[in-house]
Amino acid sequence: MEKLSERVGAAISKRQERFGNQSLPRLPSEIQEDSRLDVAYLLRDVVDTHLPGCHKVVLYDPDDEKSGSRFTDVAKTLLQVWGDALVLWEVDAFLTTPPPSFFTLRTKHVRADRQYCVAFVILAGLETVAEVFAEVQQTSWFLGTAKYILSYTAEVITKETLAADPVLGASYDFVVATRIPLEASGLPPPESLGEDAPGLFALLQNCPYCDAGNPRVNLVDKWSPTEGFLRGRELYPDLFRDFNGHKFRAVTLVYEPFSCYEKTDDVIIPADNCVDNNMLREIAINLNFTYVFVEPSDGQWGHRLDNGSYTGVIGAVERREADFSLNIAITQDREEKVDCTIGYHVEPITFATSKPRPLNQALALIRPFAPNMWAAFSITLVVTGPLYFLVCKFTVAPFEKVTPPTLVKSYLIVFAACFNQGVKWLPVFSNRVFGITYVITMFVTVTVYVAMLTATLTLPTLSPTLNTLEELVRSDSSWGIQDLGAADYQLLKSSKVPLYQEVFRGLSPCPSLDECITLARDSKYAFITWRTYLEDRIAVRFTSATGEKQLHVATGDIFPVELGWAMNPGCPYRHAFNRKIRALLQSGLISKWLDDLIHDPQRRELDGEETVIMTEGIQPLSLSHLQGVFFLLGIGFSLSCISFACETTLCTKKKTGI
Predict the structure, then answer these.
(1) Deepest in the core among 388, 432, 433, 596, taking most CB within 10 A?
(2) Closest CA to 478 of 505, 441, 448
(3) 201-211 and 289-294: which strand pairing?
């Protein structure tokens, strides 16, 4: 970047030094009426009066055969008039130099108000002017600036000539200065101007939508070397406040609640109840244009191909098959190919899974305590029996008429005290302290267990939900995405984050939105998509009449991006759309439309007739709630039978002496 800046700066300085050291030659008297001084002062007056504060870039063609050295002479004069305030560049060098990848203007002009602007003065033939116009307005030269063009061709240019040019006939922010015959220009008759008549110049401007939405060339002002501007009109007005009924082509796909339409055969009819539809309708009324909806030929939103071009909606805008799109996710790689409006809604990616289901009630008895708590409780029971046996054995004096319990009886006492059964502790102070400590500990533990068990049986525990990608990757669920070639797929594919790469490798595409959501509802499958898009469809199609959603939407978000509209590269009227979108945002209409649509009960699509069963009073416990108790009873009976069989076998062997 620094090398390119140094190379360009050196070339400009060298050219300015060469021109600045030469005296201005006098032109022959026969062409004095179109002298380089008149042209230079005309161009100076236009830029200083109508484009104050703009950076000045003068592009000239030194090798034009028709004009000879006239363009070079005018460029020399402008260099002396403006000095270091301009950048001087030969047209061929400008056209063959690729636009820099960085922002060229580092400081605002001393007289600039709110934004960067560049005034291009082009001294070349009409064909070259058209080529420079396309290069300036439709590429990344001075990216992010307002670019205005003033040209002088040294030819007689009429309205018809300018309108017939395929490029300049659709130009904007463009004025051409020309000396044309008075009778063809609409200027006053010669006698009213006297000696100034030969030196009059006309300033022609193309208005792209002035003629019922079509281009029209206007004579906006006249300039005299002695009188200056004769009409005093604005040369660079905002041409995009009124499109005069022009018909635009808006490319989109169905993406509720933002864009929606109905398609009958090949006719697309926009719907009235989606956010982007409402926005476009309001903007069309304010800017006075009409529109039609078109679909991309491949039915995709658009992903980047290996050659750098785009498919789908983005590709249609990039190739100018449509004038602009409706809602698209604004990403950096997309902005390299198309212009985007300001964002009007932040949309993150999330995923939906099945709702939490009740856990197996057979494990309800052990669920109140965590595994480490069960381990501590079991160890306490096992250790307390022998400990109590030792305490009793060594604290009872031989002369006392008290018999310490055996080891088995100590275990029985400990177990009985654990379950709040009355036991008789030895009448020794140390034993009583031991017993009180143990009883209090077990009382608290058992009471908490009973309370947790009651809560578990009353409100069955549900399976845990998945709310982050980390939890999703660690789970036994699969995941997928809707195969539309949209930005969500592209973001996961291009990410360098290991977690996102793992998610991308595990993607299992599903065919349609409803099928994806149904799969997530009925199986261990996570559907990854945009949050508002997902929540709206769940509210419409997968919510009961009582408002209960059939799926769980993760609380975690990834890749939050802004939604905006894509426009043709170098779109001249983007600022007009931005102004209207900003007004809609400030009024709160966009958020209101979105909220009303998502919560509109009339949009719900229910599967047949739903019946709501209302229950009152206390619900009795069923076998499913207490199945764990009966499993425990069965295990106990089985162990007792095994013990009985073992004891019977041992007794039989003793009696028989075997």
Answers:
(1) 388
(2) 505
(3) unpaired
